[in-house]
Amino acid sequence: MNIPAQPGSTLYDSDVFRMACRQFDLAADLIALPADLRERTKLPKRCLTVTVPVKHDDGTVRVYEGYRVQHHLSLGPTKGGIRFHPSVNIGEVAALAMWMSWKCALAGLPYGGAKGGVAVDPGKLSRRELEGLSRRYMQEMIPFVGPNIDVPAPDMGTNEQVMAWMMDTYSIQVGNSVPAVVTGKPIAVGGSEGRREATGRGVAHLVRRQLEAMGIDPRESTVVIQGFGNVGAEAALAFREYGMRIVAISDVSGGFHNPRGLDLDAALAHVSAKRSLAGWNGGDAVTNEELLELPCTVLVPAALERVITPANASKLRCRVLAEAANGPTTNEADLILEARGDVEIIPDILCNTGGVVVSYFEWVQDLQSLFWTRDEVLAKLAVILDRTRESVEKQRRKIRCTRRLAALTLGIGRVAEAKAARGLFP
Predict the structure, then answer these.
(1) Distance CA 242, CA 402 (A)
(2) Closest CA to 164 of 198, 195, 204
(3) Pair 248, 286: CB distance under 8 Å
C-alpha cells in the first residue's frame, strides 16, 4: 500500500522524513490540532550543514559532511544524539530530531528534540582520526550548542570517548570546563552512573511491564535482538537478569541463532575483541532479514530505521515488538501489524526513552555539581518509565487508538500546547 506523506518541506525530503511526517499527520488529525499550529509544530526550527576536514594517518585530507537539526526550543534546550554512520543525511537527521521532540515531551522532559551526524564509517578510522573528526565537528557546532541551547549525546557510531573529546573542544573554546554541554560522557568528566546502560535497561523494563500486562511469565519468554551495539547488548543483559532466554542476536555483519539460548558473555567478549560479531561461532548463522522472522516472544529491532516493512510485517512471529531503534517500522508495516492484531508494539518514542531520561539526569547533575549513585539513577528512571507508560495506556483507552498514536498524540500535543502558550514573535 502506498501511503502519501505531507512533508511540508523539500529541504529534508527522504523516505524516513516522509515517514515521520506521516506519523505526525495521523496524530495531529486524531487530536484535531489547529491548522495554525501544525506546520510550526511539525517542521524543524533550524538546521546546520558543515564540512568536516580530517587529516588521515597517511597524510591525506578528507572532507566529510556533517549535520545538526534542532527541531524546536519551546520547552527548553534541544537534546539529541550524534551519529557517525555512512548513511547519515539531512533527511534522516531531521526525522530523528522530530522523534526526539515527541519522546522528550512524552516523558515530561524540558527539552526540544535535536539530532546530528556525520556521513562516515567510524570503523575505518584510527583513534587519532576519530578524535580529529569529533573535535572538528564540535568546533563547527560551537555557535549553535551549549547547556541552555542544544545538548548533544552519543548515538550510533559514537560513544563516551567521543563525547569527552567534544566536551573538551567546547570547554577550550569558552575558556572553562562545561560538562553540561554534552551527555553520555565518561564518569571521570561529569558523566552519570547508569547512563551507559540506560536505553537498553529501559527497553527491558518496559518489555517486562508489557509481558506482565499480557499475563506472560518473563522466565518463559524468548528474545531476538537485531543490533548488538550498546543498546542491544545492554538490553540483552537486562533480559537475562529477568530470566528471559536470548535466542538470536545480530549486528551489521550478520546474526546467530540458538533456540536453547546464546552465551551472552562469549558474544560480548568476541565483540570487544573484534569490534563485531563476525567470526563468532555461538550459534547457527542467520542474516539480519532472517533474524526478524524467527519465532520468539519478544522481537527487539535495535539497529537502523525502516527494517519492519510490508515485505516482512506479515511474517513476524513475535508476541511483542519492542522498538529499541528509532523508526524501525514503516507506516505501511504498521497498518499490516494493526490488521493482524496479534503483535503488541512498544513504540520507539516510548520504548527507547531510557537513554534521554538518564541524559537529562546527567545534565541536571552537571548543572548542580551534585551526583547520584547508580541505584538512585535507575530507581528514578523506573519511576519515569512507569509513569510515561501508564500515560500512554490511559491515552490509548481514552481515544481508542494504537499505542504508537497514543504516544505521538501526547508528545505532539504537549509541544503544540507550549507553542500556543508562547505565541508568535511579532
Answers:
(1) 27
(2) 195
(3) yes
pLDDT in tens, 268-305: 999 999 989 999 999 999 999 999 999 999 999 999 89
The listed CATH number (3.30.1360.20, 3.40.50.720, 3.40.50.620, 3.30.70.660) that belongs to domain 196-346: 3.40.50.720
| CATH assignment of 44-186, among 3.40.50.10860, 3.40.50.720, 3.30.360.10, 2.40.340.10 | 3.40.50.10860
Render 254-278 in DSSP notation, one character per residue: EEEE-TT---HHHHHHHHHHHSSST
DSSP letter, residue 115: E
How many CA atoms within 13 Å lie on the side-chain side of 175? 0
CB 159 within 8 A of CB 229: no
Which of 418, 411, 421, 390 has the alpha carbon at shortest distance from 28? 411
Q: How many CA atoms lie within 13 A of 385 on its CB side?
A: 29
Q: Which residues pair with residue 80 across a beta bridge?
A: 152
- Residue 325, amino acid: A
pLDDT in tens, 368-407: 999 999 999 999 999 999 999 999 999 999 999 999 999 9
Question: What is this structure's pTM?
Answer: 0.93
Instruction: Indicate the SS3 state at residue 386.
Output: helix
CA angle 352, 181, 383 (to 5 degrees): 35
CATH 3.40.50.10860 intervals, the chain: 44-186
DSSP label at residue 317: B
Rounded alpha-carbon distances, angstroms, from residue 164 to 16, 28, 177, 263, 292 = 30, 39, 11, 32, 35
End-to-end CA distance of the chain: 43
Domain(s) labelled CATH 3.40.50.720 in the chain stretch across: 196-346
Q: How far lies 204's CA from each of 244, 350, 413, in Å? A: 10, 12, 27
**Residue 2 scores a pLDDT above 60:** no
- Whether 5 shows a pLDDT value over 70: the answer reads no
Question: Rounded to whole angstroms, what are the CA distances from 256 to 277, 298, 409?
Answer: 9, 16, 38
Q: Which residues are catalytic?
A: 115
309-365, pLDDT tens digit by residue? 999 999 999 999 999 999 999 999 999 999 999 999 999 999 999 999 999 999 999
